[in-house]
Predict the structure of ABC transporter permease.
Amino acid sequence: MVFVIQMIILLSFFSLWEVAGRFNWIDVLLFSYPSKILNLLYMKLIDGSLLPHISTTVIETVIGFFLGTLCGTLLAILIWSSKILEKVLDPFLVVLNSMPKIALGPLFIVGLGPGYLSIIAMTLAITVIITTLVVLNSFREIDSNYIKVVQIFGASKTVTFMKVILPASIPTIVSTLKVNVGLAWIGSIVGEFLVSQQGLGYLIIYGFQVFNFTLVMGSLFIIAIFATIMYQGVAYLEMRLNK
């Protein structure tokens, strides 16, 4: 039922957009309309110019997504394992999280070069800190009674983490994956804005430069499709883990 309602809303939106574009109710130069966008994407798909851009951005995003989640979770585990380290790093994490990540772009470009590494680094800068903060906060909120029970039976800190902390934090980690889907796409696209000569972010910038807003909307349309696929993959993982 929910899926049907979602499809009705989606189809209604695109139908209204199509009608508004064809009858010039909106500025077609700026907003285009679905059939025009699909025709442009089809032509670029046929001539082979679209797939390299899609594959570049998808690869960068997927790598940044998994590395960001993994590094953020490992950093949260490291901080949790040491109270001194937690107190030392806590203010730094807060400051880093509030810092505008796009400001780090020029540093990445100079330090890592104008390529994949800079874009992935931008994605990591956006995903790692928020992952660390969310997962670490989840570790802190575990019911202390559960921890006391295993410690009564002589469990070490490692065993306590593996038997109590980590299993209880799985829902939060999966939720973080959902958030990181969007953040990873933001990181990749922003990175391509700054440095790339290929990718969907590059197509968006190029479209703005030549006033081809149909290309811009088409790139956003592709991003929405692949972001949805990634999100549904995480949702499926969540369903499996809950079972």
Notes: The chain has a mean pLDDT of 86.
